[in-house]
TrEMBL record:
Known cofactor(s): Zn(2+)
Source taxon at top rank: Eukaryota
GO biological process: methylation
Protein name: Hcy-binding domain-containing protein
Single GO MF descriptor: methyltransferase activity
Taxonomy of the source species: Eukaryota, Fungi, Dikarya, Ascomycota, Pezizomycotina
Gene3D superfamilies: Homocysteine-binding-like domain
Protein's organism: Monilinia fructicola (Brown rot fungus)
Protein's UniProt keywords contain Lipid biosynthesis: no
Keywords: Metal-binding, Methyltransferase, Transferase, Zinc
């Protein structure tokens, strides 16, 4: 059974690669982070973004995440555009700016598509990257889940996520080029429920499941703990991801991202046990795919959400495995257990095309065994 579990390679950390390889600096004055480069007037701009995404394709990535993780009307509002979340344009300028911002956001799909275009016989897939609400806060709160009072319930978060995803889903030419929707770095149980509800709205407005897209949900497990920042256990997480939940659409893939490699193996086993419990209870009939893309940070490297700088607080040990080696061992174990339908694996923060290329080589060798 394990040999039938196909492994797909995701790309790596876009924002950190832009910073480390292209010297793009992000500050609190740039609330869109890597999405800032979608703006044509940015000093680095779309060309640098395209070159970076193409480098992941050249490294062997099967799937590219779009540069939309932190896109939001709030972020563009903080970047000089007259746009506001959940607000209809009240002037000619606001109406014009909203159309411009929508076009900028959708251009991320074009850039990802162009990154694959130079590959002969490319079957590359595009995943629309949508970060947690906390990712657009200043400073970012996707690692803490400390949201404002207007974005705490599943209904509030569903409304916010639906407004953003609608920018893409209501434009048919843009939407048809999206292969997957990736809800990433989710820190709250209520937000898991909220993104599922938002996909339900997409289905409803696009004429049913045929007008929707396969989507995955990945959570973040910061620090040394094995639960969400809100205290939710893996069992509760899996229930929220796959349970019936008032008929909300079910993600095809579940898992984690933006998490230390050393914690991933134990977390995946917890996910497997929790999914199996739902199967045995009869609540679900099919196992999902596993989606896992941990950070590529060295041991003790921590992201400071206020300064937007990675800080090393503990030196790595001499016996620590290289990132690609550690991730391959995790994936190999997951495939050998024969639990998941498919596995999507890649890297999050601090993983460059170099790490993704090495992981590509290891996966290819594994497939030949």
């Amino acid at each position: 059974m394990s040999s039938n579990c196909k492994i797909h390679l995701l790309d790596g950390g876009l924002g950190t690669t832009l910073g480390d390889s292209h010297k793009v600096q992000f500050t609190q004055k740039e609330p869109l982070w890597s999405s800032q480069l979608l703006i044509p007037t940015h000093p680095h701009g779309p060309k640098t973004l395209l070159a970076t995404q193409k480098s992941f394709v050249d490294a062997g990535a099967d799937i590219l995440l779009t540069a939309t993780y932190q896109t939001s009307y709030e972020g563009f509002g903080g970047s000089g555009y007259a746009v506001h979340s959940h607000s209809s344009p009240k002037s000619e300028r606001e109406d014009g700016d909203k159309k411009v911002v929508n076009g900028i956001m959708r251009s991320a799909i074009d850039i990802a598509s162009d990154a694959f275009s130079t590959q002969k016989d490319s079957n590359g897939k595009i995943a629309l990257s949508l970060g947690a609400y906390g990712a657009i806060m200043t400073p970012g709160q996707e690692y803490t889940g400390k949201y404002d009072d207007e974005h705490k319930s599943s209904e509030q978060l569903s409304s916010w996520h639906h407004e953003r995803i609608s920018v893409f889903s209501r434009d048919s030419k843009c939407w048809e080029r999206v292969d997957y929707v990736a809800f990433e770095t989710i820190p709250l149980l209520a937000e898991i429920e909220g993104v599922r509800k938002s996909m339900g709205e997409v289905e409803r407005l696009n004429g049913g499941a045929a007008g929707s897209k396969p989507f995955w949900i990945t959570c973040v497990f910061p620090g040394e703990g094995y639960c969400l920042p809100d205290g939710s256990s893996v069992q509760q997480i899996v229930k929220a991801m796959l349970g019936k939940n008032d008929g909300s659409p079910v993600p095809f893939g579940i898992g984690l991202n933006c998490t230390k490699v050393g914690k991933v193996e134990a977390l995946i086993i917890d996910f497997e046990q929790s999914v199996n419990a739902l199967v045995e209870s009869g609540e679900i009939s099919e196992r999902p795919s596993l989606v896992v893309y941990p950070d590529g940070t060295t041991k003790g490297e921590v992201y400071n959400t206020s300064t937007k700088v990675w800080e090393i607080r503990e030196p790595p040990g001499k016996d620590d495995l290289h990132w690609d080696e550690a991730v391959l061992e995790i994936v190999k174990g997951a495939r050998e257990r024969g639990f998941w339908r498919e596995i999507i694996v890649g890297g999050c923060c601090k993983t460059t095309p170099r790490e993704i290329g090495k992981l590509r080589e290891r996966i290819d060798r594994l497939d030949k065994e």
